[in-house]
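User: I'll paste a sequence; please echo it back and then give the predicted structure.

Assistant: Echoing your sequence first, then the prediction.
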Amino acid sequence: MCTAISDNSGRHLFGRTLDLEYSLSEQAVITPRGFELNFLREPPLTRHLAIIGIAHVFGGIPLYYDAANEAGLAAAGLNFGGSAVYSEPSSSTHNIASFELIPWVLGQCKSVGEAAELLKGTSIIADSVDASLPATPLHWLIADRTGAIAVEPIADGLKIREDPFGVLTNEPPLDYHLTNVKNYTSLNATPPKNTLCPDVKLEPYSRGMGAIGLPGDLSSSSRFVRAIFAKSHTLPEPEQNAAINRFFRIMDTVSVPRGCIITDEGKAVSTVYVSCADTETATYYFSTYGNRSIHSLRLSDANLDSSEIFAETI
């Protein structure tokens, strides 16, 4: 249960909600250029672009949920449980485990175009970092200020396609969401016009009636539509702090209050954290369910030529 958004209305901001019934002690993590990025089936990247994001650090390895690099490219992984099909290792492609994809792409690519080209020659395989952390079925939103792509490992192979809304939620695949959103093209922030019976005077009795029909439930398809509506109609803010605040307000529309979703095991889902990367300043902003205050970490807070990661509990 997650929502990721890339917003180019002024500054390029990229972020997500992480909606789960548990927490893995997430941290804001900077991976400097000199930290060796090791992969299970590929040679290591001994020098790479610096990366900042939110991760679970396991055995000294940052397992990124979402991140951005110093070039302004960002990525987030979201649950894709019903459709994700990982490939068998292939001698004709790079072989990358799902938990390796974000550092694989952000460590090497400076743009969405470069990411798409790299991934065309990449197989995403089902290897896990440890038996205690089996491979999670995921798809990814990857974006810069020029646009966004969705990356989806399905039965037919790795599908890479433009995401015109810069929004991604969970299962089902992007194609479904792009069709479903057409059901809501009449939604508007302005008062509705009476097209039902133009000969009769029918005045709106409340503000906001142009958005009647906007889905309010917490399913992935409804959050996809709601995120597009909020992103499209929330007024742009040119000043940096106001722009960050605007982004968090948009994410409020898709956040999950604890108890509004209960798993089959009886556990309560909530929005563990909300993140927002300002890719122009390489600053990561975040808030948690228990602390709505917005905190930040900059790439410049760490020595980017170091060989050690910098981690701060969120």
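The helical segments are 101-106, 112-120, 174-180, 220-233, 240-252. The mean pLDDT is 96.
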